[in-house]
Amino acid sequence: MPGDIHYEVFFKKNRKSAWALNEARDDRDQALRLAHSLIAKNKEASVRVTKETFDPEHRKFRSVPIFEGGAETMQGEKEKTGEARLPCLTPEDLSKPHARDTIRRVLSGWLERVQAIPMELLHRPDLVENLEASGTELQHAVQKVAIASAKDSDAGVHGYVKQLNELVQKSLGRIYQDGRNKTLPEYPKSARFSDIASAIHAGDRRAYSLRAAMADRLRHEKKYGDKLEALLDMGDSLPEDINVHEFARDEVDHYIAEVIAFDAGRDALLGKCKDLGETLERLACLFDGDHSADALNLAPSAAKRLARKIRGKEYPACRAVIASFILKDLERPKRLRPSSVRDEVRLARDLASRLVICADSTLPADALIKAFSSRSARLLQPEMIDELLRHSRGVDEDLDRLIALEENIVGESNKQKLAGYIRSTLGSPQADAWYVRGEAKPLERLAKLTAQQARILKSKYPAREKLELAATIDTLGMKVVDQTKILNMVESGDRPALDKASGLLRLATGGALPIGNCSADAQARALRHLKSAVGLSEAQQEDGRAKLKNIQTMLQQLSSLQAKAG
Known about the structure:
The protein is an alpha+beta fold. The protein has helices spanning 28-41, 97-106, 108-114, 118-121, 125-132, 137-151, 157-180, 193-202, 207-218, 224-235, 242-261, 263-270, 276-288, 301-311, 316-331, 341-357, 365-379, 382-389, 395-405, 412-426, 429-436, 442-458, 463-484, 486-491, 497-509, 517-531, 533-540, 542-564; strands at 5-12, 20-25, 46-55, 60-70. It has a four-stranded antiparallel beta sheet, sandwiched between helices. The radius of gyration is 35 Å and the shape is elongated.
């Protein structure tokens, strides 16, 4: 019989990888085409195709290799003789969340084409009949599950295929029989959901019955968007009795969660988004339950309705699905704002601030930090930095933009990399030309360096990078001091010694000189004037005592600044 023969395609990504079963096919040519395509896409890979023929006498498959290609051949693997054990044993087990999620994954293509969800498939005979008539969809789904189950098991694929086929036939048989016996509850479009749920709760109280009734109601809605509205209407018409209310609400929650778990269902909820950033903004509002947010103004009405329910802590399953979308989208390589790096940086910061505040066990803070750290790393790619600095008016603005970027970067290694960009800019000929020999006044250039150093010292760079950057700025500042002789100018003339000391310290404490050698040089010069014979004499005079007190205050301020700078 044709069903007793299939072809298994084994794949080895590179020499260090292990051989793994990639897929099983019923058609020989399809298996060979798959093998050739795998080699074409992976030059270091190896493949092997085997013909598996079932031996009815010994009740096992006989394997014969029909094709090998790639860098190396496959050594004969030890035959798997273990017994296949599925986690699902009865049709009722297929209704459990893990099983429904598996159904969604292996039948996603077909389910999206017919705009249905696993919960409907498990309770609607017409959908089951449609699936069986679709050709090989069901058979391929069984093979996918069998291959995945056998991968880390001591049982072969055929054992799992046999068990799965038996389980599927039992499940389909039950749905058909319930349909023929008319034991599946009906839900007329005109009926109130509260009445349907109350009647079922007063009767057999089975979740199966309520799910079947809800599936019957959704039979009238052909698109995911329409199903969402119908389900949200059910959520607005829950019974008042607390026990029945919770019974019905939980089923509505799981139904909606299954709809939005599909890409097409998520699109129906969020509406058309101009970029990934807008998608994440809407998802963040939904997760936080912020139904009045501007980000949801252009979204379908279902988004605001669901956000309002989540705000009331009613739909935890939906919130969990939204959390998984947020993490997956954050980890995607796609840009948040393809048109502007600066807008991308700003949005990433806003999203991080919002999501970290509402993080919980559904959306763990450590998972968020990891996701934003990965996105931060992409912001530091050379092409992104080039775009960030594009149209800058000069190296001083380059530094301002790079320093400002630190507030939006997550992860110690990313901050270290950003520090490298800043060090490189500070050490460039352009920086030397602008700060040391630039057209701006010396004190303006020094004040710019001092402000940039202050921002770095207040930042959250690793300690080593922070001190190195501060020292690099100080070194550049000393070049300005030496080149322009600015401190010599303050000391020149025949002004009183205490006035010269005050002037030098005002530069050091007033944001005109970087902390380090620059401020220490000004301090040393001020102390020389203060301790000179002229300075000591001036300090004894009546107006000198006031000047001396002011000098002492500035010395204390400078000492505090130097201590904070490390």
